[in-house]
Amino acid sequence: MASGGGNYRNGTHRSSLKGTTTTSIDRPLSVNSNPSKPALKTKSLSSVGASSGLRKSSPGSLGAAKDDAGVPGRVRVAVRLRPRNAEESAADADFADCVELQPELKRLKLRKNNWDTDTYAFDEVLTEFASQKRVYEVVAKPVVESVLDGYNGTVMAYGQTGTGKTYTLGRLGEEDTADRGIMVRAMEDILADVSPESDSVSVSYLQLYMESLQDLLDPTNDNISIVEDPKSGDVSLPGATVVEIRDQQSFLELLHLGEAHRYAANTKLNTESSRSHAILMVHVKRSVKGREPAHSSENGNSTNMAKSLRPPLVRKGKLIVVDLAGSERIDKSGSEGHTLEEAKSINLSLSALGKCINALAENSAHIPVRDSKLTRLLRDSFGGTARTSLVITIGPSPRHRGETASTIMFGQRAMKVENMLKLKEEFDYKSLARRLDIQLDKLIMEHERKQKAFEDEIERITTDAQVRITEAERNFADAMEKERLKYQKDYMESIKKLEEKWMMNQQKQGGERKEQMVSTAEEVAEVKKLLSKETSLRKAAEEEVNNLKSQLAQLKISEASANSEILKLQKMLEDEAYQKEKLEGEISMLQSQLLQLSFEADETRRRLDRGGPGKVPGGLDSLIAQVRPQLKDSGNGEKASIAKLFEQVGLQKILSLLEAEDADVRIHAVKVVANLAAEETNQQKIVEAGGLTSLLRLLGSSEDETVHRVAAGAIANLAMNETNQELIMSQGGISLLSMTAANAEDPQTLRMVAGAVANLCGNDKLQNKLRGEGGIKALLGMVKCGHPDVLAQVARGIANFAKCESRASTQGSKTGRSLLIEDGALPWIVQNANNDASPIRRHIELALCHLAQHEVNAKDMISGGALWELVRILQECSREDIRTLAHRTLTSSPTFLAELRRLRIDF
Ligand code: ADP
Ligand code: MG
C-alpha cells in the first residue's frame, strides 16, 4: 500500500455492478483457456489480461509505459463459495443459499430477501464445485508467474471463519493430491521454473496476532520487527528465519513445522488460529542470463574482462501468501471471553486493512498504512508495486448473510485498488564480489605456483653454474700445475746446459791466462803511482783549507770584540743623551719657575702700587711714601727702589711690622716682605732675620686671606733655596701650608701655597718627610678648585716629586712603589695628562715619564691607564725630548712591552 496521499495507484477499470445487470465488467482474473495444460511457461497463462503485460519481451498494450514507472495492475478479486457442510445441509435444508453465482458472467447475486437481490461483478466467480487446481490457476498462478519474472506478488484470502480460507491457501493435500492448496501448488511451480545453479528460493513463515509478529519457523522469535527502506519503500523482516528451499518435500516439512508451531503458540496464547494471520513469504532470486541489463549502454563487443567485472543482473521476486484471520466481528458475539480492548487489538490489523483499502478505493489523500503491522507488511500489496490477487471466501448459509455481505463489500472495494507493478531487477554486487574473490584467489594460486617454479628454476641454474665454476676452477688449477712443472723442468735443463757451457769455457780459457798476467802487473804498478800522487795533492789541499779556517776564526774573534766595543759606546751615548735630556728638562723647569717668579714679582709690584697710604703707621707710612713715587717707575728702577727701601728702613723693622696689631699694617708689611723675598739677593738676609719663621707664623695666626696669599707667595719664593726648604719643613711648613689651602677661597692663595709645596717637592732629601706630613695629599687636595694656575703648580709639584723619586730609585736609595702612587696621585695624573693647558700637560707628561722609568710602578700605571697616556706622549707630544724620554721608558720596561704586545700596539 502506498504511504501517504497521492502515492497510490487507482485503477481506471473498476466498477461495481451493484444494482445493474448490463454494465460491462472487468476482465477476468485469468484467461487461461486451457486449464488442463499445466505448463507454467504458457504465455497465455502468464499474460494475465491484456492490460497487464508484465514481461518486457512482450510489449503488450502498455509498451509506452516506462520500466521504472511500472505497469498498471489492478488488484484482482475472485469470490469462492464453500459447499454446504453437513450441518448446513441439515439445518438449512429448507432454505435457499443466500448467494447465487453466475460464474460465466462473473457475477454474484446476494439475496436481500425473497424477492430482491444485489448483483456484484468480480474478476472471477468460483462456485462450490471449483477444484483446488482451478482456483490456483485462476487466483494464484498469474501472481506466481509474475514473481518468477521478478515482480512482487500477493495472494490473500479474506472471509468469515470457516468459509475455506485455509482450505484454499494452506491445504497440503498429502492424502489427496487434488486437495493441494495455493501455497503448495505455488511452490511446485516455482521450484519447477527456477534453476538450482543460478537461482534461489527461500521461505519465511510468520503469524501476526494482537500486533505481535511471531516466527513460525522459530517460536522463540516472537517479536519480529518490520523494517522499511525509506528510499525504496521495500519492507523486510531482518529478524525472521529464512529457509532455503531446494525441493517440494522440504517445503512441505516446513509448512508442517510452521503449523505445529502455530498450534503450540495458539494454545499458549489461548487463542484460535482463526484469530491470527498466517503469512508465508517466498523469496525468489533469479539471475538474468544472456541479457544486458535494461540500463546498460555497452554494446556486444565488450571484452571478457569487462564482462567479468560487470555485476550479474538479478531479479528478486517476493510472493506473500496471507491467510487472514476470520473477518467476523468478535466484539459482536463476545463469546470468546475477550475483553473489548483485547477484541479491538485482535481485530486491529484487519480493520486497518479495511480502512486502507477503503482509502485507496476512494482515492483518498491519506492512506493509514502505519496503523497496523499487517498494513505495514502489505504496503506493497495494495497501492504498491506488487501483483495482488485476493480471494474472498463465503459460505452459503443464509444465517451468515450479514458477514457474507460485508465480505463481498470488502472484495468490491479491493477491486478498485490499482497497483503499479515494478520489476525488481538489480545488479548483484555481492555475487560479483564473490566471483571476483574467486578469480583473485585463482590468480593468487597461479601466481604462487609460477613463483615457486621460477624460484626452482633459479636454484637449478645457480647450482648448475656453481658446478661449472668448480669444474672450471679445478681445470684451471690442473693446467697451472702442469704449466709450472713444465717451466721448472725447462729451467733446470737450461741451468744444466749453461753449467756445461761454462765448464767448457773454463777449460778453453786455461791456456790464455798466463800471457795476460804479465801485462796486468805492469798496469797495477802504474795505477799505484798515480794513486800516491793524487793522495799527496789532496793532503796539500787539506792543509790549505785548515789554514784558511783558522784565519777565519781569528777574524771572527776580532770582529766580536769590535762589536762589543761598539755596543759599549752605544750605551754610553745613550746615557749621555739621557743625561742631556734630563738637564734639558731641568732647564725648562727652571725656566718656568723663573717665569712664574717674574710673574709673581709683577703682581706684587702691582699690588704694592695699588695699596694706598691709609692707616699705615708712622715709620712704614713714611717708608711707603718714600717708596711710592719710585714704584710708579717701570722696569729696572722698581727693583732698585725696593732694594733701596730695604736698606733705608732696615729688615728687622719691616719684619717686626708683620706682627703689628693693625691688620692693614700687617698686610702692607707682608707685601713688602714678599716683594723683598722675590729678589734672590734678599732671601738669605730675610731668612737670617727670622723672616721665614715670621711668615710661617703669619699663615697660622692670621685669618686674613690676603695675608695668607702674600705670605704663601713669599714662602714659595724662599722655598726655592735648598736650605730654606729644610727650614720650612722643620718648622711645620707643610701642615701650615695645608691648613692655609684648606681655608683658602681665592685661587691665587691656592696657587701660592701649591707653588710653595711644589718647590719643596723638588728636594731630594725631603721626599719622605714631605710625604709623611701630607705634602702630596695637600697638593692633590688643591686640585678641586680647578683653576688652571693652581693645577699648573700641583702638576709642577708632582713632576718635581717624581723626578726626585726617580733619581733616588736610580741611585738605589729608594725601593718600592712611587709615593705618589701610594698617595693616590695616579688617577689625577692620568686624567690631566692631556690637559688643554700646556703648563699642566708638560709637567704631567714629565711626571709620567719619571714614574714609568721604574719597573716597580709599571703594573699600577697599566691598571691606572697611564700606559695609554705614555703611548700618546710618545706619538703626539710636541716636545721631542719628552717623546724620546717616553720612548726610552716604554722600550726599557719588560712589563710595558709585554702589555703593549698583548694589546697589539705598535709604536
Ligand atoms: P477458514 O480457514 O476460513 O476458517 P477452513 O478452511 O478451515 O475455513 O474451512 C472450514 C471447513 O470447511 C473445513 O473443514 C474445510 O475442509 C471445509 N471446506 C472449506 N472449503 C471447502 C471446499 N471448497 N470444499 C470442501 N470443503 C471445504
Ligand atoms: Mg483458517
TrEMBL record:
Residues binding ATP, per UniProt: G159, Q160, T161, G162, T163, G164, K165, T166
Top-level division of the source organism's lineage: Eukaryota
Segments for region (Disordered): 1-69, 289-309
Main location class: cytoplasm
Biased composition (Polar residues): 17-36, 43-60, 296-306
Matching Gene3D superfamilies: Kinesin motor domain, Leucine-rich Repeat Variant
Coiled coil: 524-600
Location of this chain's protein in the cell: Cytoplasm, Cytoskeleton
ARM repeats: 649-691, 690-733
First and last residue of the signal peptide: none
GO biological process, alphabetically ordered: cytoskeleton-dependent intracellular transport; microtubule-based movement
Any matching Pfam family: Arm
Keywords: ATP-binding, Coiled coil, Cytoplasm, Cytoskeleton, Microtubule, Motor protein, Nucleotide-binding, Repeat
GO molecular function terms listed in the Swiss-Prot or TrEMBL record: ATP binding; ATP hydrolysis activity; microtubule binding; plus-end-directed microtubule motor activity
Residues covered by the Kinesin motor domain: 74-417
Record-level GO cellular component terms: cytoplasm; kinesin complex; microtubule
Subunit structure, as described in the record: Interacts (via C-terminus) with NEK5.
Family, similarity comment: Belongs to the TRAFAC class myosin-kinesin ATPase superfamily. Kinesin family. Ungrouped subfamily.
UniProt-recorded name of the protein: Kinesin-like protein
Organism: Theobroma cacao (Cacao)
Taxonomic path: Eukaryota, Viridiplantae, Streptophyta, Embryophyta, Tracheophyta
